[in-house]
């Protein structure tokens, strides 16, 4: 039987960075809102661009499941529904191209973050500089990333779902173009010294794929689904769900896809969204 919104039950997909948490640390009020929503019969999943390896166990435990690596990896309960990765030859070419460009990058996999030594040291510096999480908050910020970092000698042989490029003299769009149509690019910023950052991902995969797969698996009609997010990689998810919730200050494309808008983590936007939807 397909679950419709008139039953009152909803299946919710929440982005992590900038939506559920700021800099990897979520307010306790967001954790409590998820707990209450689930007690009331709703299904709530994390839907993030992060790989599962850098989602803190205490964060993952709040949810009924996780859609990670921007849709490439999907888990509901203890069942893994999807684990898509770069094909072996394409993965090797991608890694070798980035190494030749002297980029600082990480290969994101569900089991680990495979990094260049330069990125590993940069993350360690972030951890040393980071303030201690506030009492009652959830997650440990950069420490959650550092715990997943591995620096193998055979980096081009590693299996991964997505690439995070922290610093590159070559724009990520140019790297993607060299690799072919199978690879998509999501550029971030350009630093003062001209270095580029962003992500490389399988072009055929989006968070929206995870939404549709989970909804079908659990028997929810799309009209009973809710997406909450703030980033450009959330646009597909927001367009795919029955109700789309954007975050104040998000990019125009995110706000255009949103049914309504709530504050970010510091304003406890997840609480506001759940209250407006009658979930808590």
UniProtKB/TrEMBL annotation:
<dbReference type="GO" id="GO:0016791">
    <property type="term" value="F:phosphatase activity"/>
</dbReference>
<dbReference type="Pfam" id="PF08282">
    <property type="entry name" value="Hydrolase_3"/>
</dbReference>
<dbReference type="GO" id="GO:0000287">
    <property type="term" value="F:magnesium ion binding"/>
</dbReference>
<dbReference type="InterPro" id="IPR036412">
    <property type="entry name" value="HAD-like_sf"/>
</dbReference>
<dbReference type="GO" id="GO:0005829">
    <property type="term" value="C:cytosol"/>
</dbReference>
<dbReference type="InterPro" id="IPR023214">
    <property type="entry name" value="HAD_sf"/>
</dbReference>
<protein>
    <submittedName>
        <fullName>Haloacid dehalogenase</fullName>
    </submittedName>
</protein>
<dbReference type="InterPro" id="IPR006379">
    <property type="entry name" value="HAD-SF_hydro_IIB"/>
</dbReference>
């Amino acid at each position: 039987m397909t679950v419709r919104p008139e039953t009152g039950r909803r299946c919710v997909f929440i982005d992590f960075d900038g939506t559920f948490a700021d800099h990897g640390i979520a307010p306790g009020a967001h954790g409590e809102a998820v707990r209450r929503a689930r007690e009331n019969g709703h299904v709530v999943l994390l839907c993030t661009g992060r790989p599962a390896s850098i989602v803190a166990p205490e964060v993952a435990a709040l949810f009924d499941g996780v859609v990670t690596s921007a849709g490439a990896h999907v888990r509901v309960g203890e069942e893994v529904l999807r684990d898509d990765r770069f094909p072996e030859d394409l993965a090797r070419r991608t890694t070798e191209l980035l190494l030749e460009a002297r980029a600082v990058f990480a290969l994101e996999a569900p089991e680990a973050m495979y990094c260049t030594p330069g990125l590993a040291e940069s993350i360690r510096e972030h951890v040393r500089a980071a303030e201690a999480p506030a009492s009652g908050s959830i997650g440990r910020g950069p420490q959650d990333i550092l715990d997943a970092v591995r620096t193998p000698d055979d980096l081009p042989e590693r299996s991964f779902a997505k690439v995070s490029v922290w610093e590159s003299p070559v724009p990520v769009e140019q790297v993607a173009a060299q690799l072919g149509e199978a690879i998509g690019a999501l550029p971030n910023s350009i630093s003062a010294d001209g270095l580029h950052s962003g992500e490389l991902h399988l072009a055929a995969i989006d968070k929206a794929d995870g939404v549709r797969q989970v909804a079908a698996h659990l028997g929810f009609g799309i009209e009973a689904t809710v997406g909450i997010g703030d980033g450009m990689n959330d646009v597909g998810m927001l367009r795919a769900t029955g109700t789309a919730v954007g975050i104040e200050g998000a990019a125009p494309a995110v706000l255009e896809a949103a049914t309504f808008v709530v504050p970010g983590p510091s304003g406890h936007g997840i609480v506001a969204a759940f209250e407006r939807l009658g979930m808590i």
